[in-house]
Specification:
heterodimer, A: alpha/beta, Amidase signature (AS) enzymes, eight-stranded mixed β-sheet, three-stranded mixed β-sheet, 15 helices, 11 strands, globular, B: alpha+beta, Arc Repressor Mutant, subunit A, 3 domains, three-stranded antiparallel β-sheet
Chain lengths: ~500, ~475
């Protein structure tokens, strides 16, 4: 091994890229070191469902060879892990569910394909709430993921495996998906950076669908710079996803240097109402003050309908999920009940055995809200609310460049604490869901600690203004070192 | 039928659109491939895959809309129709529900009395077909063939304007003719490319309110549709006359037994939980696109029929037969334009001998063994008196058997008509000489014996003597005596 490979895991993607380029270490050394790290901490964190060690080493060797030949693609030889709802060719893709516990995907998701084409080395697939339905990574068929800052706590969810792996300095970067906050909330609870791009910015092709009109792929990293680097790779139109948008992809890394001077930051009055823990409020306000001191203007704004976002979300998302999950019927792939008596029995038992309680709850809720006689009262009304919320954001962005506030109402909560109370669990996404309903880009960056636990600052921008929030978040990271602090237990 | 009852029928016609690939994937739509070889991951409903609309189906649907004088929606939306069935891979069918691509069209048919009748077309919407369950060859289990899954369909829904099985068939034939004219469907009923469900009800004559209907499913031949509807009408009238009630239900037609059977009642039917498909954007069309499609429309059956009557002075009934398919109409026009024979003669041959020959071998006009130009050549020989109409039929058969063109066959078989008066006179003289008794009778006033003499002369000439000349010469010679 080359010099200093024992601490490679502490470095960011951008740092590692430099090291590889300078010949400080090889991709194989880097890969071996991180695989070892995965192995060392899997038992405590349960962040991974699958580790693809053999493939990873082969890819690493290929990357080293490519580098030797002067063939250096953007992510050549750099490590990545994918949330287990991205389809990965020839690799188990479970979505955290028993119903896909035997599903080897025959194809790669566009996100996986693009990252792989850029030369990255996939080390494995991360644990998650079943079908991304949850805010604590406790609904996984593969057991809960723990929070590296305190393993009695939840890392949030649904991209909890990705967040925990990045927070624990196991890998520098992971993909995630965000339907109601599933990237930003776990990023906040683990002290990492979580970026959810604009709906349509990144292709959904090959992402196992939860709620199609809300799902968006993104990344979890430790530095904003890494998030920008990865977004440059995964963003862009994909003809296989009709909802992806043909909008130019800027150089997100180059855009980071933009100062916050003159930036108009909207502070949502409703975000600081009751429900937000006092210590979190304090940290978020301190972060806003720091930005103000750098020359940004803070402007109080109103999102009059934002209080309706959670109820609207919990109609729209289950409705779409109830339909999206119909294909898991035991006929073509995935779990199938043994010896079905007839078709009805096959469906009932396959789905009862294959889906966990939360997924079943949402399928039932969704089926109900779409049913004849209820459609107008629930689904249609929720869509109208969604329109109102979108308009609220649109109006707000006439006066401000970004909207800033807390990512989550509290720091990490104990595993098991909210599992018996779905409503309490749902309320954890109260600040993040609005961006999904309106299709806006959002990012969570670490902004300090409360009782030793990370707190996240959320920034939301208009459609396709990822550059604005990336630059603002990056500038904030230049002022602070919260993101550079890791959990002691995993140092 | 029964004068006390009025029959009300509405049809839902499923037309398979003639695209090369499926409506939401790139897999082939070709018929008859080995099971599950033409279903890609999208058709199989694999986790993570997404549908992408095939633009060609939109163009086809617009063509249809314009052809039936409908409103083409500048914005239409795909929706999911949710239900579980093994041959429905995603657990939902992508269809159009609240906002279909075509609305408010119409068609004119002729009813039983020959009167024109307007039939409203409520809507036509795009959707994907499901796969097929295969029950033979799997013991207690059922096989699934998903080749057909994702095949594009245009579902054409009529208003309940049809008043008899006959009208229903007339309407359906007309739709069949239009989709084939437009080239948007091959209309092949055996392969299921054109099939229909019929909503049938009866009500006391004079009553405004519609009776309870039954939906007859999956009727895939014109003959069965007519039989199924007629059976259903009688069944319902019988129930009502016995004081019973018709149940709202779906019924299947059994062609072997010629009866309809209850399949499922609407009460236990699925709640399809339609909602807009979030994976697909609304289809937005601008006027410019719609106009460009309008300009690409071919001449349609009704317009062609009128033109045939006007331009060629054909009998409307003949023109109707000739315009049923675009290929037949084109064939006729090619014959008519390449022959010196009267246009009506050309029409008679196409409708008569040619159609019979095609029917006899169950082949389409496109596969005719005699090309239009060749048939025109044959008709030219009638027109210029080289052959008689009777000999022409013989030559037609020889041409059909592949013996060559009309001229070659006339030459080879020596079938040229005898128009030389002296040659005909010779035969006539011989006939007169050989039949003195008949000659005497004729001359005694029994003039209908002329036919006997004509027959004899034609026989002796081997059918080749020009019939007109034979008549003339015979009359002259017989009266000369």
């Amino acid at each position: 091994m080359g010099q200093g490979t024992d601490a490679l895991y502490t470095r960011t993607l951008t740092d590692l890229a430099r090291g590889l380029k300078d010949g400080e270490f090889s991709s194989r050394e880097l890969t071996e070191s991180l695989l070892q790290r995965i192995d060392d901490h899997q038992q405590r964190l349960n962040a991974f469902i699958t580790v693809t060690a053999d493939d990873a080493l082969q890819r690493a060797d290929a990357a080293d060879k490519a580098r030797a030949n002067g063939n250096e693609s953007l992510l050549n030889g750099l490590p990545i892990v994918h949330k287990d709802l991205f389809c990965t060719k020839g690799v188990l893709t479970t979505c955290g569910s028993r119903i896909l516990a035997n599903f080897i995907s025959p194809y790669d998701a566009t996100v996986v394909e693009r990252i792989s084409a850029a030369g990255a080395v996939m080390l494995g697939k991360t644990n998650m709430d079943e079908f991304a339905m949850g805010s604590s990574t406790e609904t996984s068929y593969y057991g809960p993921v723990t929070n590296p800052w305190n393993i009695k706590l939840s890392p949030g969810g649904s991209s909890g495996g990705s967040a925990a792996a990045v927070a624990a300095r196991i890998v520098p970067a992971a993909t995630g998906t965000d339907t109601g906050g599933s990237i930003r909330q776990p990023a906040a609870l683990t002290g990492t950076v979580g970026l959810k791009p604009t709906y349509g910015r990144v292709s959904r092709f090959g992402m196992v669908a939860f709620a199609s009109s809300l799902d968006q792929a993104g990344v979890i990293t430790r530095s904003v710079e890494d998030a920008a680097l990865l977004l440059s790779v995964i963003a862009g139109y994909d003809k296989r996803d009709s909802t992806s948008v043909d909008h130019p992809v800027p150089d997100y890394v180059a855009g980071l240097s933009k100062s916050v001077k003159g930036l108009k930051i909207g502070i949502v009055r409703q975000h600081f109402d009751e429900g937000l823990a006092a210590d979190c409020e304090e940290r978020v306000k301190a972060a806003l003050t720091a930005l103000k001191e750098e020359g940004a203007t803070l402007i109080e704004i109103d999102l009059p309908n934002i209080d309706l976002s959670v109820p609207a979300y919990y109609v729209v998302a289950p409705a779409e999920c109830s339909s999206n999950l119909s294909r898991f019927d035991g006929v073509r792939f995935g779990h199938r009940a043994d010896n079905p008596e007839d078709l009805f029995d096959l469906y009932c038992r396959t789905r009862s055995e294959g889906f966990g309680a939360e997924v079943q709850r949402r399928i039932m809720t969704g089926t109900y809200v779409l049913s004849a006689g209820y459609y107008d009262a629930y689904y249609l009304k929720a869509q109208k609310v969604r329109q109102l919320i979108s308009q609220d954001f649109k109006k707000a962005f006439e006066n401000v460049d970004v909207i800033a506030g807390p990512t989550a109402p509290t720091t990490a909560f104990a595993i098991g604490e909210k599992t018996d109370d779905p409503i309490q669990m749902y309320l954890n996404d109260i600040y993040t869901i609005g961006a999904n309903l309106a299709g806006l880009p959002g990012i969570s960056v670490p902004c300090g600690f409360a009782d030793g636990l990370p707190v996240g600052l959320q920034l939301v921008a208009p459609h396709f203004a990822e550059e604005t929030i990336l630059a603002c978040a990056h500038q904030y990271q230049q002022l602070t070192d919260w993101h550079a602090q890791g959990p002691e237990e995993f140092s | 039928m029964n004068d006390n009852w009025e029959v009300v029928i509405g049809l839902e016609i499923h037309t398979q659109l003639a695209t090369n690939s499926k409506i939401f994937s790139g897999a082939s739509t070709a018929y008859g491939a080995e099971a599950n070889t033409q279903a890609c991951l999208i058709d199989l409903g694999y986790p993570g895959v997404l549908p992408v609309l095939n633009g060609e189906v939109v163009r086809m649907a617009v063509k249809f809309g314009l052809a039936v004088n409908a409103t083409v929606a500048t914005r239409s939306v795909f929706a999911r129709k949710n239900y579980f069935y093994p041959d429905l891979p995603k657990g939902y069918q992508i269809s159009q529900y609240e906002l279909p691509i075509v609305e408010n069209g119409e068609l004119t048919i002729r009813d039983e009395d020959g009167k024109e009748k307007r039939i409203g077309i409520t809507r036509a919407h795009l959707e994907e077909d499901a796969g097929k369950s295969v029950h033979e060859g799997f013991g207690q289990e059922t096989g699934i063939d998903l080749n057909r899954a994702g095949t594009p369909l245009l579902e054409i829904v009529s208003e309940p304007d049809l008043r008899s099985a006959k009208q229903a068939i007339t309407y359906m034939r007309k739709i069949h003719s239009i989709v084939r004219y437009l080239g948007i469907s091959d209309g092949n009923m055996q392969e299921g490319s054109f099939r229909c469900d019929a909503n049938v009800s009866v009500r006391p004559r004079g009553q405004e309110k519609l009776g309870t209907r039954a939906e007859l499913k999956n009727l895939n031949s014109f003959r069965f549709i007519e039989k199924a509807i007629n059976f259903e009408i009688e069944r319902q009238i019988e129930i009502l006359e016995d004081g019973g009630k018709v149940v709202l239900e779906t019924r299947l037609y059994d062609s072997d037994k010629d009866e309809t059977r209850a399949m499922r009642s609407k009460e236990e039917a699925n709640d399809y939980r339609y909602f807009p498909d979030p994976d697909l954007l609304p289809v937005e069309l601008d006027e410019e696109f719609i106009e460009s499609v309008r300009k690409s429309l071919p001449e349609l059956p009704d317009a062609k029929l009128s033109r045939f009557v006007e331009q060629y002075k054909l009998k409307p009934a003949d023109a109707e037969i000739l315009t049923v398919s675009r290929a037949l109409a084109d064939y006729f026009e090619e014959v008519a334009e390449n022959t010196d024979a009267a246009v009506q003669v050309a029409a008679n041959w196409v409708i008569g001998d040619l159609a019979a020959a095609l029917n006899n071998e169950s082949i389409d006009i496109g596969d005719s063994r005699i090309e239009a130009a060749a048939l025109a050549g044959l008709l030219n020989r009638i027109a210029d008196n080289t052959i008689s109409g009777k000999i022409a039929k013989e030559i037609f058969n020889a041409m059909w058997s592949g013996e060559g063109g009309a001229d070659d066959i006339i030459e080879a078989k020596g079938l040229k008509q005898i128009t030389d008066s002296s040659a005909i006179e010779e035969i006539v003289d011989a006939v007169i000489e050989a039949n003195p008794g008949q000659v005497a009778e004729y001359r005694g006033g029994k003039e209908k014996l002329l036919g006997f003499f004509v027959g004899k002369v034609m026989q002796d000439s081997g059918g080749k003597a020009n019939p007109g000349q034979v008549n003339e010469i015979l009359k002259k010679k017989l009266s000369d005596g």
